[in-house]
Design goal:
The protein has two domains: about 80 residues, Arc Repressor Mutant, subunit A; about 30 residues, no CATH class. The chain is built from seven helices and three strands; from the N terminus they run H-H-E-H-H-E-E-H-H-H. A three-stranded antiparallel β-sheet has the order 1-3-2. The relative contact order is 0.13. The mean pLDDT is about 85.
C-alpha cells in the first residue's frame, strides 16, 4: 500500500458506507479522476440518486480522506486508495471483528454456508499450491 493510501486507510474515522462505496466503485471503474458532472449520471442511472445526494456522498469521502479533490476548471475527484487496498483493509477488519483474527474460521464459515462454489474451492486449492 502506498504512503498516501496507507495514511488514508489509517485515518479513516468511520468505515465507508454502502452508498459511499458505490461512489468509490464508479471512480475505481473509471480509472481516472472525474468531475462530479461525470460521476452524477452514472450514479443516477445505477441508483436513481438525486444530484444533492451524490454531491453529499462525494464530500463525505473527501472529508474521510479516501477521495482527493483537484481543482481544474471544475473539481475532479480520484480515489486515494485502490479497490484492492480497500478490499484488503475491509476483509482484514472483518476477519478481526467477526472471526477473532482467524482467516481459517472465515473460510470454514463460507464452506459450511455454501458461500463457495466448487469452482471457487478449486481456485483456492490452486492458489494454495502456488503459494507453497
Amino acid at each position: 500500500m502506498g504512503k498516501i493510501a496507507r495514511e488514508a486507510m489509517e485515518n479513516l474515522a468511520e468505515k465507508i458506507s454502502e452508498s459511499e462505496l458505490e461512489v468509490m466503485r464508479v471512480l475505481w471503474e473509471a480509472g481516472d479522476a472525474l468531475p462530479i458532472t461525470e460521476i452524477r449520471p452514472l450514479l443516477q442511472e445505477r441508483k436513481g440518486w438525486e444530484a444533492t445526494t451524490i454531491k453529499t456522498l462525494v464530500q463525505r469521502l473527501v472529508a474521510k480522506g479516501v477521495l482527493a479533490q483537484e481543482k481544474r476548471k471544475v473539481f475532479y475527484y480520484r480515489p486515494r486508495v485502490s479497490e484492492e487496498e480497500y478490499s484488503d483493509w475491509a476483509v482484514s477488519g472483518l476477519v478481526h471483528r467477526l472471526f477473532r483474527g482467524s482467516a481459517k474460521a472465515l473460510v470454514a464459515t463460507l464452506v459450511k454456508s455454501d458461500g463457495l462454489s466448487d469452482a471457487d474451492i478449486a481456485e483456492l486449492r490452486e492458489l494454495f499450491r502456488v503459494e507453497e
